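Homework help board

Subject: predicted structure for assignment chain

Our instructor gave us this sequence and asked us to write out the predicted structure in token form, then describe one feature. I got the tokens but I'm not sure how to describe them. Can anyone check?
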Amino acid sequence: MDVVLVLAGLAGLLVGGDMLVRGAVALARAFGVSPLLIGLTIVGFGTSAPELVTSLQAAFAGSPGIAIGNIVGSNSGNILLILGIGALIAPISVAPEVLRRDGTVLALATLACAGAILAGGVGRMVGGAFVVALAGYLLATVFIERRRHTAAAEMYEHEAEVLPLPRGATWRAALILLGGLAATLLGARFLVDGAISLAGRFGMPEEVIGLTIVAIGTSMPELVTSVIAARKGQGDVAFGNVVGSNIFNILGILGITAVVSPLAVPASIAGFDIWVMLAATVVFLIFARTGWRVGRREGAVLVTAYMAYIGWLIATV
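My token output:
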């Protein structure tokens, strides 16, 4: 029964997250929202919705290991697995302006996340600061891009255009959005309940479940978007998708979750997994800076590192 709940939850998050993003983007287009704003905010929030709902459900259920493990594991997975797979499909080009600005924000957010986790907990004050920082980043980005159309703006616009959207009346897009939201909420509930039961049955720490099954499941929308972008030869979208998602996960998802329910940090995450996330981010930024691209060789390194990381987590339970 536990496995069935987990599988049902993963399916709900995959289908619901996809519907949520497509419905929201189609609705925004119908109301004349610019591609820049759609790519920067709606796609970013939409692809991170499974992480948000799942982490909130886990926090409410008194399982901070799953809540924090989901965020840390998702960020490591986004870089090592999802970007790695995208680079294996087609080399990913990196715009220098995007890396200098958004890459810097990602590095600072990752360091702030590591600091909070190493301090032993993420309270409401820290969570609130993260949310304010995210709002400031979004407002500054919109202001800059509207004044000076840069490569970053083109990347966000491509992100809004890469997804195949539902056709038809506005009400149909609204129904898809609502259906996606319902499926995401239900999927997160099933996944968290199943993960908690699974951890108890097999004697596995909840944070390991959060770092593996839950993190991979909630990252499926990012994987779908990155694979579609890579197959279309729009590697900048795959790059922006991962950078944006990781920024949203730390400043938005961790921030909102901590504001709603302060989180205690499991010792294992502070002792090992946060360092994996930090190392993955550093390697990712170095790869992106070298030749302004992430090629197939780098993609293979990233995927291999992720397999080794997951293998280590399972072997040391």
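Reply (TA_rk): Your tokens look well-formed. For the description, you could write something like this. Strands lie at 92-93, 121-122, 263-264, 293-294. That's the kind of observation they're looking for.
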